[in-house]
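Bug: token stream looks shifted between consecutive jobs. Job 1:
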Amino acid sequence: MGAEMGWFLTELFTWWNGQTMGTRFYTWRKGEKVGTDEFGNTYYRAPDKSQTAGGFAERRWVIYSGYAEASAIPTGWHGWMHHRTDTPPSQQTYKPREWQKPHRPNPTGTPNAYRPKGSIVGADHRPRVTGDYDAWTP
């Protein structure tokens, strides 16, 4: 199977890896590119009120660079995507506030995942019961 056929099958059958064929077609027909963030995600809008839900003036979407992970959208673009601002970060000099943290990938399923005290896969052992718990025995 050639690289082109692999690209076609990936886009046809997976929604989590970039975009689907339907998204590609809709973007080609109605999409207006707004900008790209530092992760390579590309943002689009369709200023057609008949295509939107919730009465917004335009439909907005992102095509992820790689796997679709919503937490990989930077704070400025997040505000624009959720219609909290009408001006996208590509048209202004957006500077995150000091309390806004940069993106960190979700560590679930990796060795860096959070493992609370007493977890089966954690390094610590579960503390012994102090008498406030009686195990059920049949």
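Job 2, same session, no restart:
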Amino acid sequence: MEITENGFVFSDKKELLQIDSIHHYLSKESYWAKNIPLETVKRSIDNSLCFGIYKGTKQVGFARWITDKATFAWLCDVYVEQEFRGLGLSKKLMAFMIFHPDLQGLRRYQLATLDAHGLYEQFGFSALENPERQMGITVSNVYDIDPS
């Protein structure tokens, strides 16, 4: 799928993704994936439903869904480059993604955010019901661990 709006292209085509740009943003600018290795980014993209925003030849935004395409989808790694914020691109990306054929009829859509609650609430996300039922394992600073 691909749409063009106001000179920006929104696409789910993995062949358009600029892996080095995505890695740079995630490893250097994001708060959630600091120091993430390039190989980890590549593997995450290979195993996810990915979306990009492009202006000309430059990738200016990204998001990916971890999903079984049947019951569950987790939205993550969402960003718009700093110089392109404030143009409504995040909203357009969400609207583009939420109607993707592979994300229809699922039982649960989930995400975690530090500061974008207002954006996601516009698309039906809310605080979890019964959060006490949710469990997880968090490995802090996993990308800072020296493997040797």
